[in-house]
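In the design runs reported in the main text, the only information available to the sequence generator was the tokenized backbone. The following block is the verbatim input for one such run; it is reproduced so that readers can re-run the procedure and compare outputs position by position.
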């Protein structure tokens, strides 16, 4: 954190007092400079603490005000005036100008030499620089771990998080290999617009509206393998640029990874997933961590059907997810992801698969659960998929009746609705039974719901009992008929028109 004028004034050993321009007390100090010129601005870059004994600040109020105005226009952080060498106090005109221009004016006591002030500023700048370097080193370690766990998508996600930016990586055919951040589509468009320029220069920075876009070529050997683009809301700092350069190196190496190694990694991923699904307990913790999982962590399982060709689906998985396990089993693809943020990532995956295949992807997602209990999560995902009726569903959103009926075929529903076949001849009988059961067998309430007289209701119920051959007093009978009614209603809702 940079040293501010307020911070400097709070250093007890210096005894400095802000006597004017207090509204600028949060100005950051980039350097401390003792200078006695009447116009020091040609030698200032902005952000300095200007220290003076007051010998050349001006002989009258107008000159003193002009002196302060020049410093403020040059972006000076603050003015420190010694009161023990040339002058005994800060002149009133200097104070007034400091307030007018928002330039903090510090009164320096006779006991405080300028070298002591400069030492505090330099020590703070060194500490800030060390913190900045350490932050870069820490972020580089995060990127390196992301590379090991998630490959190129892992690096891209980690870089986007570190810079609060949008990051996109494309190959030489402009195919998006990985993306993270909220403005992905816009950044891909900018990459397309700047393709020729980036290819010629290797790296460039351009403005996109109120944002900055940095584009760099990716290469490990001589040929260019792709491009990385970073879209930030402001110009990047030196530390940010170092982090981008590190990401470029990691992604370039990953792009050069031999195809056989990629294939071997995918085969290992599938084998590990199948071992987990089988519940053999033979998966080593180090292997789980390699794929981005903590052995005692929570996971979510998703089951997909109709996700398109396996290789194409694998490509989408690798592009959207940073840490995942997957395996094809029959006509479905089962994936396992860490629970944190899983709902958003899986929903993004569904959208990408639907965009690739051109039709809705059906499937289901489990509740979060322990990795050790992944079989339970698999069952939940399959139940949700079975109940999805051609959509993607979440187990946590299903009702018990939905689990029982929603995924049933028309033939299965007809079997479940069969107890009502004897009532099909009378148009009013099935709705009457539904009102009766829905009102827990209360005749008056059911009659009111149907807007019929209570005697009409009793006559209808007498007829229903005769046709069903049951008095409906048994809870068992009522439960079976309620299930039959729901199956009948679901069949009716699927009927064309």
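Verbatim output:
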């Amino acid at each position: 954190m940079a040293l501010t004028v307020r911070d400097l004034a709070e250093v007890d050993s210096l005894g400095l007092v802000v006597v004017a321009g207090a509204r600028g007390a949060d100005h950051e100090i980039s350097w401390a400079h003792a200078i006695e010129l009447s116009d020091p601005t040609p030698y200032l870059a902005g952000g300095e603490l200007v220290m003076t004994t007051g010998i050349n600040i001006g002989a009258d109020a107008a000159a003193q005000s002009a002196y302060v105005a020049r410093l403020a226009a040059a972006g000076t952080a603050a003015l420190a005036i010694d009161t023990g060498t040339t002058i005994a106090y800060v002149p009133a005109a200097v104070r007034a100008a400091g307030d007018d221009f928002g330039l903090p004016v510090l009164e320096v006591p006779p006991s405080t030499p300028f070298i002591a002030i400069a030492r505090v500023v330099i020590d703070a700048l060194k500490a800030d620089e060390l913190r900045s370097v350490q932050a870069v080193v820490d972020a580089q370690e995060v990127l390196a771990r992301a590379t090991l766990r998630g490959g190129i998508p892992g690096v891209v996600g980690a870089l986007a998080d570190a810079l609060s930016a949008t990051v996109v990586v494309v190959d030489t055919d402009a195919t998006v290999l990985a993306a993270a951040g909220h403005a992905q589509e816009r950044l891909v468009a900018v990459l397309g617009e700047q393709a020729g320029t980036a290819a010629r220069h290797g790296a460039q920075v351009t403005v996109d509206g109120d944002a900055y876009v940095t584009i760099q070529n990716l290469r490990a050997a001589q040929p260019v393998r792709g491009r990385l683009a970073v879209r930030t809301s402001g110009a990047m700092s030196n530390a940010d640029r170092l982090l981008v350069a590190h990401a470029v190196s990691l992604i370039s190496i990953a792009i050069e990874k031999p195809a056989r190694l990629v294939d071997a990694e995918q085969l290992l991923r599938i084998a590990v997933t199948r071992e987990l699904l089988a519940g053999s307990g033979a998966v080593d913790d180090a292997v789980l961590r390699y794929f981005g999982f903590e052995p005692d962590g929570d996971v979510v399982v998703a089951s997909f059907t109709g996700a398109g060709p396996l290789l194409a689906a694998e490509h989408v998985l690798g592009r959207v997810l940073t840490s995942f396990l997957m395996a094809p089993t029959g006509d479905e693809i089962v994936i396992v992801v860490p629970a944190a943020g899983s709902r958003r990532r899986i929903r993004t995956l569904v959208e990408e698969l639907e965009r690739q295949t051109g039709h809705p992807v059906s499937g289901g997602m489990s509740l979060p659960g322990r990795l050790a209990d992944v079989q339970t999560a698999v069952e939940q995902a399959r139940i949700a998929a079975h109940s999805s009726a051609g959509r993607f569903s979440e187990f946590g959103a299903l009702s018990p009746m939905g689990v029982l009926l929603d995924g049933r075929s028309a033939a299965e529903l007809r079997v479940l609705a069969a107890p009502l076949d004897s009532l099909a001849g009378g148009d009013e009988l099935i709705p009457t039974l539904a009102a009766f059961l829905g009102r827990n067998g209360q005749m008056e309430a059911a009659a009111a719901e149907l807007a019929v007289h209570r005697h009409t209701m009793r006559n209808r119920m007498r007829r229903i009992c005769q046709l069903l051959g049951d008095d409906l007093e048994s809870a068992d009978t009522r439960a079976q008929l309620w299930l039959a009614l729901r199956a009948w209603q679901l069949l009716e809702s699927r009927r064309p028109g």
